[in-house]
């Protein structure tokens, strides 16, 4: 079996992202289908995620370097150019390899005609790199590697923090773990990591959370296959302590995780509390990941593939607590999903806010009197967070918001907002709502 051309495989995976019709979620499948394994898989992921993370600058440079843009059917060749620029700018790949192997990868795509074009563009960039970068970086959106519309929204919402927010998004997020308290406590697991030669620290806010100094393959984590630990950002782990007042004193409580895939929060709740949990998701394929997670951890829940904005799945028996980790713009987790910079559009925020409102109204009817609904997003957009909850409270007479007495984030109307932090947590919003007792 011949060795796959890594850059050609990456270009093919990036082409639908550049065209706005695909995402990096399909990257693992693409690499597996192409037979990319071992260290080559790590290189391919670094290349694809790196290109998406720095896409505004790379595309601005490509426009200067090309006499005319590639045709739409040649997005894979455009992707090769971006891959070459990324290697020259941000990686320790020898320049001759970044130029020669990237240009040569056009042959593996069946487009040998592009080899000379790519070679010329990349060599010109080598000659004039400082001047070309200075030219494109005069545009703040290119210098900060984000779409202009996104930065404009953040300047309005976070006038003192928008630049730091963008800079945090441009750094890969740390590898943070959730220790399964049913197996081991956090201090003991930190000692197991040290014994395995893996340096890590406890995180400041989530009680089951540790962050590795350097990312590693999950197979190197002590006890991973036995369910002792999972990968989950600290901000996402705050769901469980926020629901503790509602669940810690109610054994057997009925809980709904309404948008559950891929299952991290579902699993954490089951690790922490003795509850009867239903995990719902509209995507049956993604729901399979919830089942796989529960199997690895030895946990049980009822999983249902259904649309949470409707009630045709509900048996009419009220839930004591509902977690609505709502579909959102993902603007708080761009560092983990950098293709959001290309795929998200300004109009998406309004459409997502409308969906979130429908979900809130529908799921509220499934909540028992006196019950708790925890609303969460991995967004930093006020329309999806503080404004969303304010509107819900205004139209829902039997709803009130708990004041969150916590030491993380910042007050945001009736909730708390976390902004992404370099070497720290992702961006998240939480609001805890209570239904009036009968």
Sheet having the most strands: 9 strands, mixed
The gross shape turns out to be globular
Query: Roughly how many Å is the radius of gyration?
Result: 23 Å
The CATH topology of the largest domain comes to Rossmann fold
Number of strands: 13
Strand content: 15-25%
Structurally, the number of domains stands at 3
Binding site for S-adenosyl-L-methionine: 259-265, 281, 307, 325
Domain SAM-dependent MTase RsmB/NOP-type: 165-436
Subcellular location: Cytoplasm
Active site: 378 (nucleophile)
Question: What is the secondary structure topology, with strand pairs?
Answer:
Blueprint: H1 6-18, H2 27-34, H3 38-53, H4 55-65, H5 75-90, H6 95-108, H7 114-136, H8 140-143, H9 148-157, H10 162-169, E1 176-179, H11 186-195, E2 200-202, E3 209-212, E4 229-231, H12 234-237, H13 239-247, E5 253-257, H14 264-272, E6 275-281, H15 284-297, E7 302-305, E8 319-325, H16 340-343, H17 346-364, E9 367-377, H18 386-395, E10 399-401, E11 410-412, E12 415-418, E13 428-435
Parallel strand pairs: 5-6, 5-8, 6-7, 8-9
Antiparallel strand pairs: 1-3, 1-4, 2-3, 9-13, 10-13, 11-12, 12-13
Helix pairs in contact: 1-3, 1-5, 3-5, 4-5, 4-7, 5-6, 5-7, 6-7, 9-10
Binding site for S-adenosyl-L-methionine: 259-265, 281, 307, 325
GO molecular function: RNA binding; rRNA (cytosine-C5-)-methyltransferase activity
Catalytic activity: cytidine(967) in 16S rRNA + S-adenosyl-L-methionine = 5-methylcytidine(967) in 16S rRNA + S-adenosyl-L-homocysteine + H(+)
